[in-house]
Amino acid sequence: MSANLAASDEVLISRIANGDRLAMQVLYGRHHVRVYRFGLRLVRNEQVAEDLISEVFLDVWRQAGKFEGRSTVSTWLLAITRFKALSALRKRKDAELDDETAAAIEDPSDDPEVTAQKTDTGRVLRQCLAALTPDHREIIDLVYYHEKSVEEVAEIVGIPENTVKTRMFYARKKLAELLKAAGVERGWP
Questions:
Q1: Spatial contact of 67 and 13, defined as CB atoms under 8 Å apart
Q2: pTM of the entire structure?
Q3: Inter-residue contact 73 to 17 (CB < 8 Å)
Q4: Fewer beta carbons within 10 Å, N or C terminal of the chain?
Q5: How much is the pLDDT for 183?
């Protein structure tokens, strides 16, 4: 088992292609949190994000033999997650909009403690990120939260690298404006 734990993701995929369940468990252990977080940012629903984990790793089990190694395994996993998330969003578009509308309604009965929590920098940052367009939010998420390179983001999203760079530029600019308007200074040079 210790050999499996130290195996590279690519070796694990090769073993999974041959039906190795332990290799699948190790790969799942390494990446399920990343898949969940990325999926959650896209679908904004915990249950749907949980379902995505199952769908993504079921695809990995079924498709491991088709992995060609042109990208890292984590990039491949996020590309599968993105595809599954976009499919899920298309299926539940109306319900998602209703949930977002309900969440945007402020509760006038907030006490001072709740009001103070709402001004917390992390909360403000999440609100500012949510105000970005989906395309810009996705780029920020992949680069900053998943530490993907421009090349990897281009592969995951299926757009040219220059488009990633352009979206990144405008996303950072808009995020800086939103944070400044909210009274928070930029967190990057």
A1: yes
A2: 0.63
A3: no
A4: C
A5: 78
For residue range 106-145, what is the model confidence (pLDDT) as tens digits?
Answer: 544 555 554 454 456 777 888 888 889 999 999 988 988 8
**For the chain, how many structural domains are there in total?**
2
Query: Does some domain include residue 30?
Result: yes
Measured between alpha carbons, how far is 89 from 91 in angstroms, rounded to an integer?
A: 5
- CA 92 to chain CA centroid, nearest Å: 18
Q: Which 8-state DSSP code applies to residue 148?
A: -
Q: How many CB atoms lie within 10 A of CB 125?
A: 16
Shared-domain flag, residues 87 and 14:
yes
Average predicted confidence (pLDDT) for the chain:
83
Give dist(CA 21, CA 57) in Å, integer.
Answer: 12
Q: What is the pLDDT of residue 122?
A: 73
Three-state DSSP class for residue 185: coil
Amino acid at 123: R
Q: Tell me the two tokens of residue 177.
A: 């404006």
> DSSP of 17-61, one letter per residue?
HTT-HHHHHHHHHHHHHHHHHHHHHHH--HHHHHHHHHHHHHHHH
Domain membership flag for residue 101:
no
Two structure tokens written together for 188: 């990057």
Looking at the structure, tell me whether residues 13 and 83 fall in a common domain: yes
